[in-house]
Design brief:
Among the domains are: 88 residues, no CATH class; 59 residues, no CATH class. The protein is built from 3 helices and 11 strands. The protein is elongated and about 95 Å long. It is an alpha+beta fold.
Length: 212
């Protein structure tokens, strides 16, 4: 099994009736599914088991014997199918001689350098990516120089929900749901003149009960 490094990243899709494997690119994860290789013993056992469910007796015992035979031969059959799948699968990947990884030629291989793009990045792709990131950084800098909240009253008390109906507030002075003012209304205490919140029952300054 000279291709052992190729088999580092795979999924075994085999079942009782045959063998199949999915190999993945070490860089991006794109995959290739190997052709399904039927297990002759597994197929024969399945047919005998189906027939045995109708007829029983000798056929049923043959199906059980086939199951034991299949279990005995599973290792050898798997190894042979695996080796065949590896030889077939390697045709769909490129091996980087610098890092040893197997990558897909469509997305992760630098043909000009004969190395994977992790070891030899594609300069055109890198330039395009750098330009895009620089453009985003410049856009941030440019937007920071423009007043974005000129209409925002930073001294006013802002609320996230209407104090009357608890509806979400999108801005403005009045609730879009119930029409009442969003600012907390305050009245003067009849005894000390301290401002008292609308819903307060007592003056926070002198303790006088709020009338009304």
């Amino acid at each position: 099994m000279s291709m052992i490094q190729f088999t580092r990243n795979y999924t075994d899709r085999s079942n009782d009736y045959g063998f199949q494997f999915e190999f993945f690119c070490d860089k991006c994860g794109n995959g290739h599914m190997s052709p399904f290789i039927a297990s002759k013993v597994g197929v024969a056992t399945g047919i005998l088991r189906a027939a045995g469910s109708f007829f029983g007796g000798t056929i049923g015992r043959a199906a059980n014997a086939g199951t034991h035979l299949k279990d005995a031969l599973r290792g050898q059959g798997w190894d042979e199918a695996y080796a065949e799948a590896v030889e077939e699968g390697r045709k769909h990947f490129k091996n980087c001689t610098r890092c040893g990884k197997w990558v897909c030629p469509q997305s992760c291989w630098n043909e000009a350098r004969s190395l994977c793009e992790a070891c030899a990045p594609d300069l055109a792709e890198e330039a395009a990516s750098i330009q895009a990131h620089v453009a985003v950084e410049q856009a941030r800098d440019k937007l920071r120089q423009v007043e974005q909240v000129a209409s925002l009253d930073v001294k006013a008390a802002h609320v996230a929900a209407c104090p009357h109906c608890n509806a979400k507030v999108e801005g403005g002075k009045f609730c879009a749901e119930c029409g009442k003012p969003l600012a907390v209304q305050k009245v003067a205490c009849g005894r000390c003149g301290q401002e008292v919140p609308e819903r307060a029952k007592f003056c926070p300054e002198c303790g006088t009960p709020r009338s009304g």
